Amino acid sequence: MAGRKNKSPAAWLEGSIIASYGRRYLVEFPDATVLDCVTRGKRGALACGDRVSVAPSGPGQGVIEAAAPRTTLLYRSDAFRQKLIAANVTQSIIVVAAAPSFHEDLVNRCLVAAEHGGMAALIVLNKTDLPESAAALESLELYRRLGYRVLALSARRDVRPLVPLLRGQVTVLVGPSGMGKSTIINRLLPHAAARTDDVSRALNSGRHTTTHARLYHLDAASHIIDSPGMQEFGLHQLTIDEAAHAFVEFRPWLGRCRFRDCRHLSEPDCAIASACAENRISERRLASYRSLAQELAKGEKY
Ligand SMILES: Nc1nc2c(ncn2[C@@H]2O[C@H](COP(=O)(O)OP(=O)(O)O)[C@@H](O)[C@H]2O)c(=O)[nH]1
Ligand SMILES: [Mg+2]
Ligand SMILES: [Zn+2]
Hints:
Elements: E1 13-21, E2 24-28, E3 34-39, E4 51-58, E5 61-67, E6 73-77, E7 82-87, E8 91-97, H1 104-117, E9 120-126, H2 133-146, E10 149-152, H3 163-166, E11 170-174, H4 181-188, H5 199-205, E12 214-219, E13 222-226, H6 240-246, H7 271-277, H8 283-298
Bound molecules: guanosine-5'-diphosphate (GDP), magnesium ion (MG) and zinc ion.
């Protein structure tokens, strides 16, 4: 049983969160043991990938007493609350597929969150065994031109093209549900049994199949986090200026608008709008930025 000794930092164990279920966390320690943990009091939310100090509190259980500073954080937020997705990851892979269809706006928001969160981002088009994939790959050409890596594969047939990109990385897979994130992890690690399901079944039951984030080990230096699918990606944590910077191709033009506080919505002499008129910035990306900026403007505090 938990003795007084466990209350002193000397008895704390250092581990990493490998799963987060609401306000409970599974924490794994270097000897591969796992404790089911809660946080104390009103501590801010934690995420899969967070490094924490745990005081064991009973058989298989512990209390998270402290969390180490994060190198990166991927999260989304609406006007009311934040939803942490993963901490300390080095890269975010946005997984999409031609079917079911996905919204380009969501891809843009995932990229913005990765840019702002301090991690690399790449895109995987899964399900290339489906005939609709050619058109989807063509539409993703836009991102390749922006400098993002775009990899097309069929998890069902072969996930090996992805393996070299995961080596030495802590990766989080994000995107709408039904794109094949859990399938990719299952194929990488057949014993992992990340939960996958038929899209139709998931849609009929009205819930996503992956209900919480979960970290898996590919090898000692490579880890991968599966995350629940999202239909929306709120970015209320960003200022409009940060949003503009997170559209990587905007960066060379920022600071060149007539107004210093230009939001690139409909202001005169906007360098971003001019760059778009000259085909140096794509209309699709500018439209996506503007819908985000308008959303952020609504929630802005004056
Ligand atoms: N045709 C095809 N279907 C796939 C492929 N990868 C996954 N799926 C299917 O897509 C559905 C959703 O997969 P899942 O991994 O649960 O997606 P998640 O919600 O992104 O985790 C399941 O029915 C999978 O069998 C693929 O490469 N080709
Ligand atoms: Mg899943
Ligand atoms: Zn502007």
